[in-house]
Amino acid sequence: MDYNTDREKLTLSEYGRNIQNMVNHALTIENRADRQRCAETIVSIMRHMFPSVSQRPDATQVLWDHLARMAHYKLDIDYPVKIAEEAETMAKPEPLAYPMTHIRYRHYGHLVEDLIGKISDMEEGDRKERLIELTANQMRKDLFYWNKDGLKEERIASDIDRYTKGKVHMELGKYRFAATVPNNNFPKAVSTKKTRGKK
Predict the structure, then answer these.
(1) Does residue 194 have a pLDDT over 60?
(2) In sequence order, which ranges of 73-175 are alpha helices (DSSP H)?
(3) What is d(CA 25, CA 33) in angstroms, rounded to the nearest whole number?
């Protein structure tokens, strides 16, 4: 039995083993003109396999780059585009640095913390009052999805006071909180089971 696990690992598995076999065959063709025609036929088949690639402005570049990769950059033909270097295509990107921002209350997230920090530095006025109200409502939503039992407006006011080290005091009677309810707007499933009616 011939198992895929015993075969050579595919360079680009999305094209399948048949395309890889075609590429391997092209490498064995001695006549350059025949080898060129074979490569062009392979790319044409690859293009038809993935019509969405053809819609890309760099479709030709991508397909010929893929052919070169599957041939391990050993296919001696006249490429219609400048093929990317092997080191360039095989290079691994630098790992992204994970943000290590300290979040005091993780259920609110750092965006709410940043917003409260800006509020504490704002001048008194209607704009500041409106921003406090919007932020408090966002905090209410966060609390609702994190712990419904802890959903108390007094807690929100207390957390804002702690965040701002006493710079912002939220008078609960002064602000309007939006109602927070779970998303139960999905329609109920309708049963398709037929019931017998009485004659």
Answers:
(1) no
(2) 86-90, 109-120, 126-146, 153-163
(3) 14
Question: What would the pLDDT profile of 65-96 be if each residue is shown by its tens digit?
Answer: 999 999 999 999 999 999 887 766 666 777 77
Whole-angstrom distance, CA of residue 39 vs CA of residue 110: 53
Question: Can you tell me which residue has the tokens 């595919």?
Answer: 10
pLDDT band at residue 109 under the 50/70/90 scheme: confident
- The answer to whether the CB of 68 falls within 8 A of the CB of 75 is yes
Hey, what are 90's tokens?
Answer: 């095989």
**CA–CA separation, 150 vs 89, rounded Å?**
52
For residue 195, how many C-alpha atoms fall within 13 Å in the half-sphere facing its CB? 3
| Tokens describing residue 28 | 């064995």
User: Of 39, 41, 37, 62, whose CA–CA distance to 50 is shortest?
Assistant: 62
Q: How many residues does the chain have?
A: 199
- pLDDT digit string, tens, across residues 28-48: 999 999 999 999 999 999 999
| Nearest Cα to Cα of residue 157 among 135, 142, 141 | 135
CA dihedral sign, ordered 6, 7, 8, 9: negative
